[in-house]
Design a protein that fits this description.
This protein is of the alpha/beta class. Helices cover about 45% and strands about 15% of the residues. The protein has one domain: Alpha-Beta Barrel (TIM Barrel). The protein has an eight-stranded parallel barrel with strand order 1-2-3-4-5-6-7-8, surrounded by six helices. Helix 7 packs parallel to helix 9 (about 185-200). The longest helix is centred in the C-terminal third of the chain and has 20 residues, at about 185-200. The protein is globular, with a radius of gyration of 17 Å.
Length: about 260
């Protein structure tokens, strides 16, 4: 199965609008030159309209870091799917920081994924185990449950909807810690846990077409180790996406391993 790798930068709560424009201006020409990789930038909400103007017709995708599942209403501080869709093609859903700090659950992730799919967005759905779960041998159980519940109800009869999903495996113990998983271990989770769970939901054909990124302390120095693995289809990059040379180098590494 030929899956085009996707490298997405999750800027988290970093960069003012002016700083965001400066960062994109630094990397846009370099990213445009890299073939065979889907490139995505996910800045804070406030910077999205400004970057939309900069990235238009660049071939570089724009994504949000979250959304709410309702179309509109009295939900102070939230952003609807339609508001995201006005500027973005992608949206990160269920990041472990959302789960840890803001009480998101597999069920709320499912509602957000369903809303994103319904309006035509490409959801980047994050899954991953905590350090305690990892050390207790619960990785498979936890990740399978996150997939089963988080993607429940997506219509397998509509292959385009399911194929649009991107899964990001981000072991919580590796996010922002500098303790990245090994390429071999991440590949095992992708190929022996996540893809079979996707197959249970959507069937083998669709499951083989869905891209699974790795995320968690991805850097220019270790990216090639991950991208060399057959089940790893790119990366969801955190801190390194704020460093122009690092993010460009990671994207180039993905291009070299493009299958």
């Amino acid at each position: 199965m030929n899956r085009i790798p996707v490298v997405a930068g999750n800027w988290k709560m970093n960069k003012t609008v002016a700083e965001a424009r400066e960062l994109v201006s630094t990397i846009i020409s370099k990213l445009r030159e890299i073939p065979n990789v889907e490139k995505v930038l996910c800045p804070p909400f406030i910077a999205i309209p400004a970057l939309y103007e900069l990235l238009e017709n660049s071939g570089i995708g724009l994504g949000a870091q979250n959304l709410y599942w309702e179309e509109k209403g009295a939900f102070t501080g939230e952003i609807s799917p339609g508001m995201v869709k006005e500027f973005c093609k992608y949206v990160i859903i269920g990041h472990s920081e959302r789960r840890t700090y803001f009480g998101e659950t597999d069920e709320s992730v499912n509602r957000k994924v369903s809303a994103a799919i319904k309006i035509g967005l490409t959801p980047i759905v994050c899954v991953g185990e905590t350090l305690d779960q990892y050390e207790s041998g619960l990785t498979s159980e936890v990740v399978r449950r996150q997939i089963k519940v988080g993607l429940a109800g997506i219509d397998p009869v509509d292959p385009a909807s399911a194929r649009r999903i991107i899964v990001a495996y981000e072991p919580v113990w590796a996010i922002g810690t500098g303790k990245a998983s090994s390429g071999e271990n991440a590949n095992h989770v992708h190929g022996q846990v996540i893809r079979p769970a996707l197959s249970d939901l959507f069937g083998d054909d669709i499951a083989q077409s869905i891209r699974i990124q790795y995320g968690g302390s991805v850097t220019a120095s270790n990216a090639s180790e991950f991208f060399a693995q057959p089940e790893i289809d790119g990366a969801l990059v955190g801190g390194a996406s704020l460093k122009p040379d690092e993010f460009v180098a990671i994207t180039k590494a993905a291009a070299k391993s493009s299958r």
